[in-house]
UniProtKB/TrEMBL annotation:
InterPro entries reported in the protein's UniProt record: Bact_OuterMem_StrucFunc, OMP_bac, OmpA-like, OmpA-like_sf
The protein, known as: OmpA family protein
Domain named OmpA-like: residues: 437-557
Species in which this protein is naturally found: Oceanihabitans sediminis
Signal peptide: 1-19
CDD domains (alphabetical): OmpA_C-like
GO cellular component, one term: cell outer membrane
Keyword field contains 4Fe-4S: no
Lineage, highest ranks first: Bacteria, Pseudomonadati, Bacteroidota, Flavobacteriia, Flavobacteriales
Chief location: membrane
């Protein structure tokens, strides 16, 4: 039963597969390729995020600058400076004895006066009758009665008196200002904040990407059916529509569990550190009581002197000076003669008498007695002048926060991986015959000069592929890429090298949009040499170059 079902299935598949047996109306000399219209796949690039975008935080520490600042440590004030009084020494006269008068006695003086005294009066003599004479005594006042003044001298007494040698004055005494100190606070140092970066955390994951979806294709069995009666063995082979499983790749991805963050902490927190966080103090001298003056009386300076004061002025008392007389004798005619009178001249005698000029007084002015003393007299009273005391400053240093710490946020972009996957655009499976250049059915050389031991395409090699191979693939056919090496090196290494070179061409075609299902890459190593240059044979480089080749041919789908 199984065999019958298998035969029926094979027959149905064969009829369906070879509904078109050979090209109709073929032309002589032309080559045809029987193509099963392939599934048309297009490559789509799928971008997979293998690592998410995240923030990378870096801290920039706070910037500080040191500044100097002048602060007033002693306020401007004033002090009073005493301008002392200006004194000058003056001389003055003090009457130590007042002016007075004294009576100076002019003593009586006598003047001698020569006086002719008739000692014998003129008479007449009578002749013959002489006159009778008698001698009489008479008193002559030689000094008239007078008075003399006797000076009663003035009565003086010595008295003490006070002389002001320096007048009373005043002096100003400065009561200096009273100062106190104040402690002032200032911000000596500013603090910023510290930033602790919590880096982003990641978790590992993976993502399965279907790079080639599940499909199916016709495959012909290698051996014909045992009961095949056709001379063409291809007519009796089984065609199976085999499933091609989807091709997946697993891409390891990194997922962002938590993005980067930061915690800002003050460098100095009074609540926790317990200190004053950069506060400094300085002492300022301040005036608590301004300077003033008080007036101090300077008593007058005196000197006790002695002076004679007239208690009672001088007077005089009159003392009677009795007159002085002198008894003299003179002859007095008692009886004149009686005869002829002969005039007898009087006889005179010169008598010197002292005339007393009585005493008198004259007032003699007694000038006051003075004494020249010196005394200091205040010409200008003391004053005060205000002297400004400039404020005193001091330079303090303080640290100023010019820029606080900050977080520089750098976005680390997501890392993506581009995976090329094949997407079925048009379902194939129809058998068609396509005319091709007969030369393309055979192997055609690509003029690629591989560097020794290298599988890297050069720019010239890519240009060769663009010129020769891409136009062939544009017709929708499939090709085989065959790469060969020369015999130098081991067979294993040459085989691997040729496979890498064939795959390098395949990868380049895929990058140009050619579906990988239309490309078969084979490396043959040194198994298909074109000349005698096998192992152990000495050949030139030119001969070896013939074997070191890459070819392509159109293959039947």
């Amino acid at each position: 039963m199984k065999k019958t079902l298998l035969t029926i299935l094979t027959f149905v598949v064969t009829i369906t597969a070879f509904a078109q047996d050979l090209p109709t109306n073929p032309e002589p000399g032309k080559c045809y390729v029987r193509c099963v219209t392939p599934d048309v796949w297009v490559n789509q690039d799928v971008t997979i995020q293998v690592s998410p975008a995240y923030k990378k935080l870096s801290t920039v520490p706070a910037k500080f600058t040191t500044a100097t600042e002048e602060v007033v440590v002693e306020n401007a004030s004033q002090r009073l400076e005493v301008v002392p009084a200006v004194y000058e020494t003056q001389t003055f006269e003090v009457v130590v004895k007042e002016a007075s008068q004294r009576l100076e006695k002019i003593p009586s003086r006598t003047e001698t006066v020569t006086e002719t005294v008739v000692v014998k009066e003129a008479s007449q003599r009578l002749e013959l009758v002489p006159a009778v004479y008698e001698t009489q005594e008479f008193t002559v006042v030689t000094q008239e009665a007078s008075q003399r003044l006797e000076i009663v001298p003035a009565v003086y007494e010595t008295q003490d008196f006070t002389v002001v040698t320096k007048e009373a004055s005043q002096r100003l005494e400065v009561v200096p200002a009273e100062y106190g100190t104040e402690t002032r606070s200032y911000k000596k140092r500013e603090y910023g904040t510290s930033i602790k970066v919590v880096p982003a955390s990641f978790s590992s994951n993976y993502q399965v990407v279907e790079v080639k979806p599940a499909s199916a294709r016709w495959e012909m069995s290698d051996t014909p059916a045992a009961d095949c009666a056709s001379s063409d063995p291809n007519d009796c082979r089984y065609w199976c529509y085999k499933s091609i499983p989807a091709q997946n790749i697993t891409v390891n991805t990194t997922e962002l569990a938590a993005d980067a963050s930061y915690v800002r902490t003050p460098d100095c927190d009074p609540a926790t550190s317990g200190d004053d966080c950069g506060m400094g103090t300085y002492t300022v001298k301040v005036v608590s009581k301004p300077a003033s003056t008080r007036v101090i009386d300077i008593p007058a300076e005196t000197k006790t002197e002695k002076r004679v004061v007239m208690v009672s002025p001088p007077t005089t008392r009159v003392i009677d000076v009795p007159q002085k007389t002198k008894t003299m004798k003179r002859v007095v005619m008692v009886q004149p003669p009686t005869t002829r009178v002969i005039e007898i001249p009087a006889e005179t005698e010169t008598v010197t008498r002292t005339v007393i000029i009585p005493e008198s007084t004259r007032v003699v002015e007694i000038p006051a007695e003075t004494k020249t003393l010196k005394r200091t007299v205040m010409v200008t009273p003391p004053t005060t002048r205000v002297i400004d005391i400039p404020q005193k400053t001091s330079t303090i240093k303080k640290t100023i926060l010019t820029e606080d710490s900050k977080v520089v946020e750098t976005i680390v972009p997501a890392v993506t991986k581009t995976v090329t996957k094949e997407v079925l655009q048009t379902k194939g499976g129809l058998t068609t015959w396509k005319e091709v250049d007969c030369k393309l059915v055979e192997y055609n050389d690509l003029n690629i000069n591989w560097n020794l031991g290298s599988a890297t395409l050069t720019a010239a090699a890519k240009a060769e592929i663009d010129a020769k191979l891409l136009p062939v693939l544009a017709d929708g056919v499939s090709v085989e890429i065959a790469s060969h090496t020369d015999s130098r090196g081991t067979k294993e290494s040459n085989l691997a090298l040729s496979e890498r070179r064939a795959q390098a061409v395949t990868n380049y075609l895929i990058s140009k949009g050619i579906n990988s299902s239309r490309i078969v890459s084979n490396g043959y190593g040194e198994t298909r040499l074109l000349n005698r240059c096998a192992d152990g044979v000495s050949c030139t480089e030119r001969e070896h170059l013939v074997n070191r080749r890459t070819q392509f041919r159109v293959i039947n789908q």
